[in-house]
Amino acid sequence: MKKDNNGLCILAGAGPGNVGLVTLRTREALEQAEVVVYDYLCNPDILTWVPVNAEIVFAGKKSGNHTLPQEEINRLLVEKTKQGKRVVRLKAGDPFVFGRGGEEAEALAQAGLAFEIVPGVSSAIAVPAYAGIPLTHRDFASSFTIFTGHEDPAKVDTATDYRSLVAGGGTLVMLMGMERLASTVQKLLANGADRDLPVALIRWGTTGLQQTLTGTLESIVNASLGFQPPAVAVFGRVVELRAKLKWFERRPLSGLRIVVTRARKQASGLSAKLRMLGAEVCELPTIRVEPPENLTEFGELVRDAGQYDWLLFTSVNGVDSFFEIFYRLYTDARRIGNVKIAAIGPATAQRIKRFHLGVDFQPKAFIAEAIVDGLLQFGSVENLKFLVVRALGAREVLPKRLMELGAIVDEAIPYRTVPETNYTSGALERFKATGADVVTFTSSSTVENFLALKLPWPAQMKTASIGPITSKTMRKNHLPIDVEAAQYDVDGLIEAVLKLCAK
Fold it and tell me: What does the alpha-carbon distance between residue 476 and residue 79 come to, in Å, rounded to a whole number?
């Protein structure tokens, strides 16, 4: 079919809620999007992959509360695609599994517009798996059926053949059916289902807030009073396997919401590790890393780095910024000369090694005071030339102490941190609405900028500090310090959080 413009609408599955279950193709589409239209059940952290200048439209639907009617969504997708834009329609789970993606694709096809379908991991499969329930098992079920508990209200009669569902003998998975659970159970029983048939209800499956309730057809309705959607219901003997196979909810941080305040570029590593431990992560970056105001001066210092005796790096960001410029100027790592290299922590040292350079010194304690004391083990620093690569506004301890000992010190400012202002993912609103169990601070600037947001402080929320310098800033701002990392890096912070949450 000949298309009138270069517009493209991508109907992409956002998966069941866990960011790690989003497909690579969906992420790629979001990174190139000009317009994103997303649903209520899409994890808003996914929106951090969208370009900052993209238009983001919330088209969320909850029972009885539609931000945009379906007809309006169809019209919006057609209109934006006709304008020649790259549109991503982000749909929870899979776009063609009870997601009305077929209707949206029909509207685009009728308008003669180009579109693409990106399948997603359906909650019908992923959520039971995260609850330790296999949908098929040689001893219990050789088939499974997915049905919806939320059919078109315009239908006079249900299209669901409950007699066939029961007669099939396989596992039954119901999506979007919590509000109609009682009537669904009644219809299953009326069509011959066993009253003792095991049932599982799984709320917010695959996320750190996952909750699972089990029972039987006879007991589940009364047991589920107060159990709110979104939830997936599983009917069948395979539910019995959960006692042995549940794995996700056994993780040490399961059920806890943890705030990550690091810059968005750095947050992913900490967030991923917390999610692996079962936490629900709320990324609320309070700072943003930007190039230095005087990039020319920084470039000249990088160019002349080989003239120094020592090159000191205090952060991963500093390493990245330094070598980005270095390899624009040179194609050979040997051009750095015979300069010795020191790194203030293991993450910084590891990043230097990625550029195929060794680290001559790394202090045991990851603070500026320790690096100066350690350098003295190499002998006097008097008249030695040091290039210190550190962020604008960082503590003066390192260059000041070196100069007091007679060293010649130049400072290369590779970046500056500014308060983050872009919260298109809705992280602020989520925090205000639901709060958190733990907030993590990884630097003094994250503390100060978090407080500058003037967010409500939930009564139960505890704090975790990455080290003594950050803790000092917290005390200065009258914040409690519930735990401080013994090792002043991300891994140490995670250990501290585990210790705190184990109490």
Answer: 53
